[in-house]
Amino acid sequence: MCGIAGLLNLDQQPASPVLVRAMTDALAHRGPDGDGIYTDGALGFGHRRLAIIDLSPGGRQPMLTQDGRYAITYNGELYNFQELRAELQAQGCRFQSRSDTEVLLQAWATWGPAALGRFNGMFAFALWDAKERRLYLARDRYGIKPLYYRRNGNVLLFGSEAKALLAHPAGSAALDLPALMEYMTFQNFFTDRTLFKDVCLLQPGCYMAVDLARGGSQVERYWDYDFREPDAPHADEAEYAEELDRLFCQAVSRQLISDVDVASYLSGGIDSGSITAVAAGQLSNLRTFTLGFDLNSASGIELGMDERREAEHMSYLFKTEQYEMVLKAGDMERCMPRLVRHLEEPRVGQSYPNFYAAQLASKFVKVVLAGSGGDELFGGYPWRYYRAVVNDDFDHYVDKYYAFWQRLVPNSLLQPMFAPVASEVKGVWTRDIFRDVFHRHADQLTRPEDYVNHSLYFEAKTFLHGLLVVEDKISMAHGLESRVPFLDNDLVDFAMRLPLSMKLGQLGEVVRLNENEPGAKTAKYFEKTRDGKLLLRKVMRRHVPEIISDGEKKGFSAPDASWFRGESIDYVKRVLGDKRARIYDYLDHSMVWRMVSEHLEGHQNRRLLIWSLLYLEQWCGTFLSGAAEQQAGDR
């Protein structure tokens, strides 16, 4: 696990080691165990090392093949590297280290881009073919590890974080206004845009090839999700359950491979609880980490947000070494400058609790297991999928699901919200951005199951991806590697072919409800249903108490709706009530404050919007360094 950075001078001027070093130093937090620089003519690679597998000097990067043709700077872990190593040795390859980096490098030298389909793990890497003068940038199937790139004139910059690109003289920061509109609709980015103008995020399951000798570049997709209802179940439920249990235990076991201690997050839910149970059965004295919340000023549904009691019970059952931290109102404000500097681009949810969780874990270990992916693979959000299961056609489905996914500002208010920069965002159509997530889809969707599988695809591509980007940035801010066992290739392949009836049990009832226009009764049903993850829950009863496996789905979130109206109200008013705030160079102050006031007065719950606005104001102050004021003056 590491940080990577680099550049390619497209005019073939020699790469400056000094500039590569500056880019690499911007990522020092990602790799406190060492660094390295490599240049070859126009190409420069930088690396910061967090030593997890093969702690010896043999694992240092950038790494070259023995013949010097290929060089790599790599961030990630291949959990099947030992199997790949044996296969490559059988073909005559020799290895000088025990690292998975060398296995990846030799695999590419042997199989080329086809090697990507063989990798089971998380990765982002840059690989240089010195003979062909060709650069490859690649990212894992699911987007667990990020990789940013930017072309400025005759230089292509790339790195694990945008700040590495900004460290280059050609990489000054400016706000991407179309991306801001995208974010203010979805609280996420569905395209490859980021808040930084001209900085793109290579999409999951893709690689880019840049041909320096001949000129030109192209991005190829080598993998994509494919949730599909089988024509007929291939086995009965008992056989599916046995296979799920086998694959889940195998996935956790694979991700325990390490030359340093491995720990686990432990919430009160089924996903992290099951991972902890399996890991604790294989590791002695497993450490676990739980984050709780002070609920003295919380109310309503937020009173159930603290899961320490459930986590403590599971820690007792699994005999783990348990550590806890409790967040209070004010902790968001306290960490916001550090959070924004490390997270860079905001994505789904209020991510500052994750920042504190990673900070806690990093005091004890370098590697932690997380439960991300279980909901997206096995249908953990039924109240979302059920919003669009009866439709006339695909575009009707898009309209209904798009309406549901406007998380911050509804479509009708977007143009007035962006009035200060109307001319610069007039060509942005967020519905088209939403629809384009489905870069392929069946022309004829005939069953409710087809639409739910499209929703599972959509959420894996967008919501899960956002969670993974946040998880990487927040963990690596503390020199911590976060692993996600649910995103094991074999387990994902199984989940995508699992009959929907083994994920959702009330689809038929919802279809009947949808025969009428959604009303109060339907909306209440969506909010209260505990459907979802049916087979996963049954199987995980083997690992966690039934009260956990059958428990209601809870998100990992602080009681900010209450805190914004109470103990943090002065913070909200001070930042968002100030007409001189930087965000009002781009957003209409009166409209923003009207929406914020509706929350403060208890009329609406706009906690996600308030969080996003607070974050964006800090972002402007952190990265633009006066650029916002200059842009406003230019207009």
Molecular structure report:
By secondary structure, this protein is α+β, with helices and mostly antiparallel strands. It folds into four domains: 2-178 and 196-221, Aminohydrolase, N-terminal nucleophile (Ntn) domain (Glutamine Phosphoribosylpyrophosphate, subunit 1, domain 1); 237-379 and 462-549, HUPs (Rossmann fold); 392-444, no CATH class; 560-634, no CATH class. It is 42% helix and 15% strand. It has 27 helices and 17 strands. Strands 2-3-1-9-8-10 form a six-stranded antiparallel sheet. It has a six-stranded antiparallel sheet with strand order 4-5-6-7-11-12, covered by helices on one side. Helix 2 (81-90) packs across helix 3, helix 6 runs antiparallel to helix 18 (489-497) and helix 9 crosses helix 26. The protein is globular.
Task: Give short descriptive properties of this protein.
635 residues; alpha+beta; Rossmann fold; 6-stranded antiparallel sheet; 27 helices; 15% strand
Distance between the termini: 44 Å
Which residues form runs of ≥5 with pLDDT under 50? 515-521, 626-635
What's the alpha carbon Rg, rounded to whole Å? 24 Å
CATH evolutionary superfamily of the largest domain: HUPs
Question: The CATH topology of the largest domain is what?
Answer: Rossmann fold
The share of residues in extended strands comes to 5-15%
Helix content: 40-55%
Mean pLDDT rating: 91
Largest sheet: 6 strands, antiparallel
Question: Helix- and strand-based class?
Answer: alpha+beta
Number of strands: 17
Strand order of the largest sheet: 2-3-1-9-8-10
